[in-house]
Amino acid sequence: MPTRRQFIKVGIAGAALLAAARYLDRPLAATADAYRVLDDNAAKIVRALVPVVLAGSLPDEEAARAHIVSEVLAAFDRAVSGLAPAIQEELAQLFSFLHFAPSRLAFTGLWTPLDEAPPADVKAFLTRWRHSRFDLQRQSYEALTQLIQASWYDNPSSWKAIGYPGPPAVAQRP
Amino acid sequence: MIKDPIKEGLAAGWAVIDAATLERDLEIEADVAIIGSGAGGGVTAEILAQAGLKVAIIEEGPLASSTDFRMREREAYPQLYQESAGRQTLDKSITILQGRCVGGGTTINWTSSFRTPPRTLGYWKNSLGLNSMDEAELAPWFQRMEERLAIAPWPVAPNENNDLLRRGCEKLGIASGAIQRNVKGCWNLGYCGMGCPTNAKQSMLVTTIPAALERGATLVHRARVARLVLARDRVVAVEANGIKGNGATPSSHRVRVRAKHFVLAAGAIGSPGVLLRSNAPDPSLTLGKRTFLHPTVISAGVMAQKVEGFFGAPQTIYSDHFLDSQALDGPAGYKLESAPTHPILVGITLPGFGEEHARWMAQFPHVQVTIALLRDGFHADSPGGRVMLRSDGSAVLDYAVTPYLWEGARRAYLTMAQIQFAAGARTVMPMHENARGTNSWREARAEIEGLPLRALATRVMSAHVMGGCAMGREPRSSVVDESGCHHQLGNLSVHDASLFPTSIAANPQLSIYAVCARLATGLAKSLRPA
What we know:
The complex is a heterodimer. By secondary structure, chain A is mainly α. Chain A has helices spanning 4-10, 12-25, 40-53, 62-81, 85-99, 101-108, 119-130, 135-153. Chain A contains 8 helices and no strands. The longest helix of chain A is centred in the middle third of the chain and has 20 residues, at 62-81. Chain B has helices spanning 5-11, 39-50, 73-80, 105-108, 118-126, 135-148, 160-172, 208-214, 267-277, 321-324, 343-349, 354-361, 403-422, 441-450, 509-527, and strands at residues 15-18, 26-35, 55-58, 94-96, 112-113, 151-152, 177-178, 180-182, 218-221, 223-231, 234-243, 250-264, 289-292, 296-302, 317-319, 334-338, 367-374, 385-389, 395-398, 427-430, 460-462, 466-467, 492-494. In chain B, the strands form 5 sheets. In chain B, strands 1, 2, 3, 9, 10, 11, 12 and 23 form an 8-stranded mixed beta sheet that branches.
């Protein structure tokens, strides 16, 4: 997630692109009805990332899979809404920058929007970010993958495959 | 059925105000206003209320209690932790687990209780001139708080996650010990980090805060302090805003507390943050600086047998061998402990994504987690971090892990792998983006020696934030004096982990309790001369 200090590291051109992404992208975006903080563009991007970040964990059957992806997306939105406002703003910048074609091309190598890109291409850019020499890309990789992983493993549907029985029953006074 | 002492107290008429639901601004008068209800604020509130002073406690987080503690990460993290347990340092390379609820960190900590190590106290006294930090003089204060909070040896066998650390150390001839815990009638569930559902943990939430409320103290929760109102060398009032449902944003109503004395106990990011926002005098330029974290690196050992580190008291075994065997001014030492395994915590700590990540998660019940807490702040090459304000006024910690600490982290990874293999691990995985995991100590050594230890590749966590309002004899090099009073603001004290001039080199809760009990007792005397 970009901060002024990291702008310097990705270079002035990167900073200019980010600023442009934010400026040009923002007026179109409003919080989507179904979500607390994500706008439509951000939700589309997360929806495209989820099957790649959670590959090997999601159900194969189409309807069950779509249902889980929607649940993860809703949990992602809840998780972001609990972060500090300054961090929420940085994430909003990151989503603008992934949505705006010039900045997306520069930093992910993807010309096609994320929600139209083949999963292999999404996996490839996340892998590049994971081992990037730029802090900004490693930060973005960690933020997106960890938020999606947290959003999945808070879901009891994920527990059976990992052998987690859930918390024990403790009788409490209502 | 489990009693909920908070619900009972509220029904009995405690003075508790939820600032998130205020319909108008609120004005309160008190003898002492305490900002924060964690280890420092809780102990201080009880002692001052018992001395007959009118106390008002202002807490940023909600008043949640055992009825709310349902042992689910998805509920506990947003409810009870700063930034939903996603607080990070400025460059996002260190995740900080910090409480934000009534009881603060004590409501969500893992109950590990250690007296301040004698070497830490010796360094403060002999190298930093803090004569009051004398082991013998502090001993009765440790004893008093141990009795108050039922801190004692834990009579139950460690869970497998902890016992593997013990057995691995034993095989290698490394000394380990049992951790004392602040619990009464603990059910050994393993969910301390999500709030104790049985009220066994003797946190501030069920001990000192209720005691203060019984004595007529007022608690305002879900109120985030904006600033102290200063007039020359005095604090006149503290101003806070109610916060909205998710805790991230302020509501429009304000709480203003006027008092004779103010105690800052908002933790080592919160307290410097309040002073910075208030433009408090800082002639020594030390405010918010030398902030320490015990930067913690993590190693997962996959065992043949089930470990199920989600069940059972989370931390019961430790080793100080790699602290004790290092000189304070030598290479970085580290304390070894276990950490509980819960799905979100493990899910976000394991490196990678997709199938690679899913394969590790499939081993979840077999994973043993060992952590190494690096001792920071004693060596010139470990100066700590700096608390600063973002443009919106929120506090953030800038902390760079120095090459000195990375060198310690590498030795810690080696130690942890060696212990995990000695305990029978089939595979050991350092929590690092470049690690692939290995099946023998020989391979592990080669992998760890080749890891690029750098920010945002190495998983670094912290649950212990210390320093930033350092105690010292000299106003030119510290923020508060040995009585905890601010050098420039006469009616302001700091009672929390931000007082410490270095890290503690042990889980800090008992250090905070004992030091603050002593400071609060002194403060009560000065405010109520006999």
